[in-house]
Amino acid sequence: MSDHDHDLALARGGDDDAFTRLVAPRRRELHAHCYRMLGSTHDADDALQDALLRAWRGLPRFEGRSSLRSWLYTVATRTCLDLVEGRKKRALPVDLGPSSEHAVLGDIPLTEISWLTPYPDSGLSDDPAGPHARYEQRDAVELAFVAALQHLPGNQRAALLLFEVLGFSAAEIATTMDTSVASVNSALQRARRIVSEKVPAATQQQTLRDIGDLRMREVVADYSSALERGDAEALVALLTEDVTWSMPPLAHWYRGLDAVTDFATKVPLDSCGAWRRLPTHANGQPAVGSYLLNEDAGTHVSFAIDVLTLREDRIAEVTTFIGAEHFDGFGLPSTVA
To answer: Which UniProt keywords apply (predicted)?
Structure first.
């Protein structure tokens, strides 16, 4: 008997340690699946915890007609579908309305909106999750892809992820979702059309491979330095002509060099105060942890995660996720000198 089969037999008999060993190799990718389904790291935490509890309780009924991996994904997907049904879709500011031509000072956070959140991608593989998957694991947590998923109903979202990201067959997905193969194929067709309209042809993984790690680190360092020095000219030199900048939970966002320059000059470079920034990665993309000086504390405190979307070696999008809570999972300190 293999170690896997031995642990499975023990887990069916109520051995919690054996169940933990069985789940451990899949835990990271299951969490990423929940994030793709729900668009929120916090929701993914809750969904995975609930799914693993359901799996633990249901393990004695697992008959082994499918792989344990397939069964765990079935439980996780159904858990997420239950949550999707009762919650608003996750959004970014670009989903809410047109861009602003000039900086909006005193912008108020919209707390009634369910916002997309950044994802700490450490531990995710660069390879596909299955031999028949179309996307690499990091491709499938990129901001554009996850944001596009939020425009799909739950069944289409699940079908697309299970087929194109995880490599399950239409027949396996039909079993997971308790539906017909024809329904799965129909859901896939509709989901692919919507996603293809919203996701750029070139993924960030392709872009990062093309420019190389050294150039990517230079862009991130130059972006951080320009903002810390208050150097608008150096910042603008890094941006594409059609650059966008958004800052959830603030509703206003900016498109094009003129609007972005006006915003950057009047807000982060002028009215916010002194910054420090540390490089990181989020959603398979280069990112920066931004720290704002708290004069009373005498230190810079965690403020936002800036996720950078590159086109060639220029920044095409800045998505600034405001909130110290976003730092959880990134391995970044809460304060810097």
So the answer is: DNA-binding, Sigma factor, Transcription, Transcription regulation
